[in-house]
């Protein structure tokens, strides 16, 4: 048996020690819920009759009898978003599979699913991060009827999966299986898409040319194929043992995807408290599973949004995860994947090269993952060293992962990584605490020191660029973008603009208390800076022309300003009224007022922030 890497063991024990009381209270709560037995049997006749009134005769009889498992389906289906449109068919597949397994299934409820790709740079993006908490609340409403013995969660993108999991953990006594839809087939090469975007940013491509390129990239049902938050979510659910093995990156509307969906229903029916293999999600998501998720994030160069989401997920399970844990784990976990925006390949290429099955095997063999975890598939993460396939009769089978990568330009073994560490750094200094992802940043751009130019709006940066005001070495500071200011929108639209400046040979960096998402790339970006400017954080004391040093090597974020002078400055303020109304933003006032800092997951459930 491979020994666990000492840093992995040390970080896990540190998390376990600081979380002991909160975790114990959480487990006591879910154990008390489990101890009451299957709740459906305790419903009054009127309650129960309401619960099965719309069912067909066979399901109604099974629910009336009360001895068969009943599976709740919580779905993020809508048919505007490509990633979630395939879920339209899933309830039918799940219900049939449940009946064949002697169980029943009902759609317990729906949760909202918004797309950051549609709302980038728009007012709606300011609802995006808090939609995670709305999804968690919606999940709780769906499960509040006490009709279910396990739940299947249908979600893919950005805030949807974290919100579903936070909600699932509030019902941690119930088993939970996450059921993905898979990525769309590959479209236009990512290098070509990026080239057209940058040409458009420089005024060298028309809107028609840009739309044609984007439409050739985002072209079919399924998840966007770049490695942003959506596909990082799928990796996370698999490496944490909440997917079936091999489920993450199978394309939608294929026989294999349908077989995996049906098997998820059968497996959910098998792991309820009514059987002899009870696997409540609150027990599966422990300190080891959380560490495994962080390791997977580093090994794949995943989305920086998970610096928020994994922290919030952990907190929902009574576990305190800190940025310093990400930093320590990044120092020993090698980068094994190059997927756009960290490379030119997409997730279909990654999957074809060996994918998660190969990567999980490599990390297990190197002692970089906890192999002794419990998963929805059974004990031990070694169960995930397999690929899913179909036999000649169309039945689901699993075969061992390949012994080597089929494309070393996309996926590498631990012995030959793209880089020796995970490429994530925590930054600290007189400007606060933030993070930087350097897995795609050139080595000669990982330290940038230059005069800063300060903005309070994403659009102001583009305007200054078009006026030629940024054509120099510059640290672009975009402040008042944190959770309490305006909901912490992604600033993805800055990427092409800053990329053009860097390609012109300038030393450029971004500093912000906002987010950059999984689409951040080659420009160094100090993000999630906390305390945020709206709360009087140090960014509010910066002035145009101050020299700022972003140092990913030393892990520092500093204003090169006399300390006494800097501290004596009055904090700048911004008129944020226009960000607090319209497009539903007035409804989120409570969320903004109580949101915790980015270092604690930027959650409205963070009571310490109130």
TrEMBL record:
Domain Dihydroxy-acid/6-phosphogluconate dehydratase N-terminal: 69-382
One example GO MF annotation: metal ion binding
Residues annotated as transmembrane: none
Pathways involved: Carbohydrate metabolism; Entner-Doudoroff pathway
Annotated ranges, domain Dihydroxy-acid/6-phosphogluconate dehydratase C-terminal: 410-602
Cofactor(s) annotated in UniProt: [4Fe-4S] cluster
EC number annotated for this UniProt entry: 4.2.1.12
InterPro entries: 6-phosphgluc_deHydtase, Dihydro-acid_dehy_C, DiOHA_6PGluconate_deHydtase_CS, ILV_EDD_C, ILV_EDD_N, IlvD/EDD_N
Biological process (GO), any one: D-gluconate metabolic process
Record GO cellular component, one term: cytosol
Pfam family for this entry, one: ILV_EDD_C
Reactions the enzyme catalyzes: 6-phospho-D-gluconate = 2-dehydro-3-deoxy-6-phospho-D-gluconate + H2O
Cofactor note: Binds 1 [4Fe-4S] cluster.
Alphabetical keyword list: 4Fe-4S, Carbohydrate metabolism, Gluconate utilization, Iron, Iron-sulfur, Lyase, Metal-binding
Ligand binding ([4Fe-4S] cluster): 157, 224
Function: Catalyzes the dehydration of 6-phospho-D-gluconate to 2-dehydro-3-deoxy-6-phospho-D-gluconate.
Family of the protein in this entry: Belongs to the IlvD/Edd family.
Name used for this protein in its record: Phosphogluconate dehydratase
Source species: Marilutibacter spongiae
Gene coding for it: edd
């Amino acid at each position: 048996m491979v020994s666990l890497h000492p840093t992995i063991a040390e970080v896990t024990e540190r998390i376990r020690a600081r979380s002991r009381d909160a975790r114990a209270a959480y487990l006591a709560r879910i154990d008390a819920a489990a101890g009451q037995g299957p709740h459906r049997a305790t419903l009054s006749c009127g309650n129960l009759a309401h619960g099965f009134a719309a069912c067909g005769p066979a399901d109604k009889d099974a629910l009336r009898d009360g001895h068969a498992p009943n599976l709740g389906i919580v779905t993020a289906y809508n048919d505007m978003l490509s990633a979630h449109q395939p879920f339209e068919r899933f309830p039918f597949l799940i219900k049939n599979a449940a009946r064949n397994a002697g169980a029943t299934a009902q759609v317990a409820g729906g949760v909202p699913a918004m797309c950051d790709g549609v709302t980038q740079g728009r007012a709606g993006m300011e609802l995006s991060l808090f939609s995670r908490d709305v999804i968690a609340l919606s999940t709780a409403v769906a499960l509040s009827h006490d009709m279910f013995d396990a739940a299947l969660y249908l979600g893919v993108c950005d805030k949807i999966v974290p919100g579903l999991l936070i909600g699932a953990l509030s019902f941690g006594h119930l088993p939970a299986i996450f059921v993905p839809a898979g990525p769309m087939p590959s479209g236009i090469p990512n290098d070509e898409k990026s080239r057209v975007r940058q040409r458009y940013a420089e005024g060298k491509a028309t809107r028609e040319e840009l739309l044609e390129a984007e439409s050739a990239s985002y072209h079919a049902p399924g998840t966007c194929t770049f490695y942003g938050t959506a596909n990082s979510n799928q990796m996370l659910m698999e490496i944490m043992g909440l997917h079936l093995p091999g489920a993450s990156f199978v394309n939608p509307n294929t026989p294999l995807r349908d077989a995996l969906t049906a098997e998820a229903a059968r497996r959910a029916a098998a792991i309820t408290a009514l059987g002899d293999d009870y696997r409540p999600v609150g027990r599966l998501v422990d300190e080891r599973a959380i560490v495994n998720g962080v390791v997977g994030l580093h090994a794949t160069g995943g989305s920086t949004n998970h610096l928020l989401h994994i922290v919030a997920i952990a907190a929902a399970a009574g576990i305190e995860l800190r940025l310093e844990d990400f930093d320590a784990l990044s120092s020993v976990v090698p980068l094994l994947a190059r997927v756009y925006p960290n490379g030119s390949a997409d997730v279909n290429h990654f999957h074809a090269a060996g994918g998660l099955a190969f990567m999980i095997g490599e990390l297990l063999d190197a002692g970089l993952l906890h192999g002794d975890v419990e998963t929805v598939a059974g004990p031990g993460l070694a169960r995930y060293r397999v690929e899913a396939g179909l036999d000649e009769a169309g039945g689901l089978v699993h075969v061992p992962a390949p012994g080597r990568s089929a494309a070393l330009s996309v996926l590498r073994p631990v012995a030959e990584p793209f880089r020796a560490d995970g490429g994530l750094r925590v930054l600290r200094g007189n400007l606060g605490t933030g993070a930087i992802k350097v897995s795609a940043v050139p080595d000669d751009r990982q330290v940038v020191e230059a005069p800063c130019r300060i903005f309070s709006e994403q659009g102001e940066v583009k305007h200054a660029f078009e006026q030629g005001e940024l054509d120099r070495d510059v640290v672009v500071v975009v402040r008042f973008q944190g959770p309490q200011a305006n909901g912490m929108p992604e600033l993805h639209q800055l990427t092409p603009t800053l990329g053009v400046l860097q390609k012109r040979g300038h030393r450029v960096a971004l500093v912000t208390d906002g987010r950059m998402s999984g689409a951040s790339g080659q420009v160094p970006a100090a993000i999630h800076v906390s305390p945020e400017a709206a709360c009087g954080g140090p960014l509010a004391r910066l002035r145009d022309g101050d020299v700022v040093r972003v140092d990913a090597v030393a892990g520092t974020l500093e204003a090169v300003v006399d300390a006494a002078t800097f501290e004596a400055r009055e904090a700048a303020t911004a008129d944020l009224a226009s960000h607090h109304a319209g497009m539903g933003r007035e409804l989120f006032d409570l969320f903004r007022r109580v949101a915790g800092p980015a270092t604690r997951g930027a959650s409205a459930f963070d009571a310490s922030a109130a």
